[in-house]
Design goal:
Elements lengths: L2 H4 L4 E3 L9 E3 L2 E8 L3 E4 L6 E10 L5 E7 L4 E2 L2 E3 L11 H8 L2 E6 L5 E7 L2 H11 L8 E6 L3 H15 L18
Antiparallel strand pairs: 1-3, 2-3, 3-5, 4-5, 4-8, 5-6, 6-7, 9-10, 9-11
C-alpha cells in the first residue's frame, strides 16, 4: 500500500462554491471539494502546492478522480491532497509568492549599498524577471521585503523610497541631479 493511501482523506464536499454544486464542465459532472489542509500535489510530479479550488469526477469504473487549481495558477487533473508539505520539500515557491501578497523590495550589494527598490504582488515572477533582464541582479547579495495590504500602497511606498533612499539602479522616480525634477 502506498504512503499516500495511508493518509486520512482530507476532503469534504461543498454545498456551494460560486456555482451550484455539482455543475457540468465539458460534458462532465463536477462536484466541488475542499481540502482541509490546503495542500495538494499532482500524482505525477509530487511538488506540494496551496490549493485554490478542487473538484472530483468519477471515471467509468466509479473511481473518484480529483483535479485542482493551485494558488500559483497551475493545476492538475491527477491531484492528491496531502496532510503536510513537509515530507515533500515544502510548498512551491510560486504559491508562497502569490500568497505573500504585495511588497516593496530592496536589493542590497555585498557592501550593503542599496542597489534597487521595487514593488510587486508576485515576488517569484518579478524576481525571475530581474534575474533575466536586470544588470544589477548579479550584483545583489540580499533582498529585503516589506509587506503591504494592497499593491497601491506598495507602489506609493516604492516611489517614496526611491526618492528618499536613492538606489543606484532605479531609473523611474529618481530626481534628476541637474534640474531637481522627477526623472
Amino acid at each position: 500500500m502506498s504512503r499516500l493511501a495511508m493518509i486520512p482523506h482530507p476532503l469534504t464536499a461543498l454545498k456551494s462554491y460560486g456555482r451550484r454544486a455539482p455543475y457540468w464542465h465539458g460534458g462532465v459532472r463536477v462536484h466541488r471539494v475542499t481540502c482541509k489542509t490546503g495542500v495538494g500535489a499532482s500524482r505525477s510530479r509530487m511538488i506540494p502546492h496551496m490549493v485554490a479550488h478542487a473538484g472530483v469526477v468519477w471515471d467509468d469504473a466509479g473511481t473518484p478522480v480529483f483535479g485542482a487549481y493551485w494558488v500559483c495558477g497551475a493545476g492538475a487533473k491527477d491531484a492528491v491532497f496531502l496532510a503536510s508539505a513537509d515530507e515533500y520539500g515544502g510548498i512551491c515557491e510560486r504559491c508562497l509568492s502569490v500568497a505573500a501578497g504585495p511588497c516593496v523590495y530592496r536589493a542590497f550589494g555585498p557592501d550593503g549599498a542599496l542597489l534597487y527598490v521595487g514593488s510587486t504582488d508576485n515576488r517569484y515572477l518579478r524576481f525571475k524577471s530581474h534575474e533575466k533582464k536586470s544588470a544589477w541582479w548579479g550584483l545583489s547579495a540580499s533582498i529585503e521585503c516589506e509587506d503591504f495590504p494592497t499593491i497601491d500602497e506598495a507602489r506609493a511606498a516604492e516611489m517614496t523610497a526611491i526618492r528618499t533612499e536613492h538606489p543606484m539602479h532605479n531609473r523611474i522616480g529618481r530626481r534628476s541631479r541637474r534640474s531637481g525634477e522627477a526623472a
